[in-house]
What we know:
One of its GO terms (cellular component) is cytosol. 40% of the residues lie in helices and 21% in strands.
Amino acid sequence: MKEVDELDRKILRALESNADLANKVLADQIGLSPSACLRRVSRLKEMGAIKKIVAVVDPNCYERKLSVVVSVKFERHGIQARQDFFNQLKREKAVVQCYMVTGEVGSIIILNVADMEEYTEFTDRLFNEDPNVSAFTTFMVMSKLM
């Protein structure tokens, strides 16, 4: 990846906070002309610094109102075993975020599910039937603070 400078970092921070900013507003915030700002944003996308633009949707606005955080422990930590697990997660519509982490657990997964029945089906299919998952712990989200 090419080097990003301080102006690029300002653009990234602003877009990370609000990716819906109009180019003129973003340019004004950063202190660039709109055309220079647009060129930088395009370059940041091309080089992969901006991976994608997404909308953070309130789960209460659609059928997936139950948010769940799951920590997963693995039997084996080899590259292929982890990749197989993460590839399977990518196909699941309930998965909002997934992190490979350090410490006692191998992965933290954020889910939005419709109800406990869907969560149980998810855990049976992805955790209980996977011989590489040695344990998992579920945390039901009571409220989102940030």
